[in-house]
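Why Exostosin-1? Reviewers of the renewal asked for a concrete example.
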Amino acid sequence: MQAKKRYFILLSAGSCLALLFYFGGLQFRASRSHSRRGEHSGRNGLHHPSPDHFWPRFPDALRPFVPWDQLENEDSTVHISPRQKRDANSSIYKGKKCRMESCFDFTLCKKNGFKVYVYPQQKGEKIAESYQNILAAIEGSRFYTSDPSQACLFVLSLDTLDRDQLSPQYVHNLRSKVQSLHLWNNGRNHLIFNLYSGTWPDYTEDVGFDIGQAMLAKASISTENFRPNFDVSIPLFSKDHPRTGGERGFLKFNTIPPLRKYMLVFKGKRYLTGIGSDTRNALYHVHNGEDVLLLTTCKHGKDWQKHKDSRCDRDNTEYEKYDYREMLHNATFCLVPRGRRLGSFRFLEALQIPSTIRSIHQDKILALRQQTQFLWEAYFSSVEKIVLTTLEIIQDRIFKHISRNSLIWNKHPGGLFVLPQYSSYLGDFPYYYANLGLKPPSKFTAVIHAVTPLVSQSQPVLKLLVAAAKSQYCAQIIVLWNCDKPLPAKHRWPATAVPVIVIEGENKVMSSRFLPYDNIVTDAVLSLDEDTVLSTTEVDFAFTVWQSFPERIVGYPARSHFWDNSKERWGYTSKWTNDYSMVLTGAAIYHKYYHYLYTHYLPASLKNMVDQLANCEDILMNFLVSAVTKLPPIKVTQKKQYKETMMGQTSRASRWADPDHFAQRQSCMNTFASWFGYMPLIHSQMRLDPVLFKDQVSILRKKYRDIERL
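Here is what the prediction returned.
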């Protein structure tokens, strides 16, 4: 009896001690966390930022979900199920405590930046098309390196997408194959892509091998196993998902009111037994056959009739009455219930057809619908965008001092086109002036591309320089000397009221005209070919137009593209028509950020093509800007004097007289469209003229009266 009492007292004391330690530990961790957050706070509670400039945080128009890192609980193993305890030593759970600070080597990224290495493909290893598309997206990106010693992140060439043992895409013996990789290092600084894990009947999240300290870019990942600020949750996509480009969303018009024929729709399989059955079996309670259509079918699997219930026949009949795509196109919102796994293809399908719920106000419905279109087109419409978004998220985690904020990720043009390496100040980009309450730049830098020797004081380049310098908006002029001859003496250049800087082009190649030169001190760039004929009045007018459209190319010489059905390829034309899709950079104004994007976003293969041909750099810049803005350029007042002037045959500028020149531009169009995965150029019929242009009124009433005389 005494022994039982002693045992009971000992057990009670131990329990109390454990509880005290548990609650005290939580308080200790919480207080320690608060103290860390307060380390950078100064007197009066004011926050003093570190030397690194962080992105400013703006309130979102649409309230975001709470980020995972704000929900994270360090003591994540307090509430675990018996199954989780049994699986504690299995593959996916071993690194459950992994975070960037504990399982990632940042030193690999400090020297060479964010570079990604893909293991060479091993002979005889099967790779599904979807995984080939993922690897191709990485290898075609600006992050790729073929040198593992330069890499910050490593990606396996072994196909890890489908880890369902019943799948024909399942790769056997992956455990031993991964462990034999000499760079594996227990998965440290590795990224593993996975769409399917586990198999029937449990569909666990075990990928079938020890991932060690590797990060997961995974679809259908549960909250229990997702490691905040370490893993990346990606959408489940089908094998038919486009590799590049991708279709635009189906929202063509902002219909007011935004309600459609159906309020809520779903059409899919109903699982009669096993995991996922409870969710879809309950949908019939909401289905009303009018504006709420939640249709399920029992017809799937080999032995579905063995398990059919009393509702199956009725459900199957109702299911066949409706066309899936017709329902989606006419729905206000689309239900995305879980299936066997947590993820569903309908997540991506629903993004193309925006959704919401009945109780939300119509204004919010329209805003949400527009936002889903943006998210679809910016991050999900192709495998390439999904992969690049994943890599950009990881890069933000590594370089936190320049990581993108929610405004950048959730506002056009999105995180893939706003590169934080360019600047940590949103006002340095042309997309956020309205959000910041800023006026567009009031000055420009004229950059004149010179390729012919300076032999006469009457050459067009000198007249152009003087005309640009007289503009009230001109801050400076840069002459980019891409001529084989030495730089002219300083006295050969005309005297101007603004500084004239002459710099030699890097390697004398065409792409050097779009390098982000430090000498360009203004956000606005007036790009000029040496043979361009422009008056000061024309320069002033074009710049005032650009100030209203700072994210676009604004200028004079327009060109267009078309689809040639007979040749089944894109064509380029300089014919005078009622529309255009390009404004050539021989006489155009744009934001200098596009110099940075041209240099650091576009692949070397396209820039090398431009340099080898000494052609098409202007077309490539138009492709880039239209891909970013999803808008056409803007042409200002018609000017028939501007032509692709045929200059002396001894000049490098005689490329205009080269019979191959036009054919090269046709070829460039198709090569560029292939890399982008679609045709980003957009036709426009808008031309902006000065007020009262060509009107039968006194010339004295016109501000830009000189333009009419040209």
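The longest strand covers residues 262-269. This is the kind of structural detail the renewal will allow us to pursue systematically.
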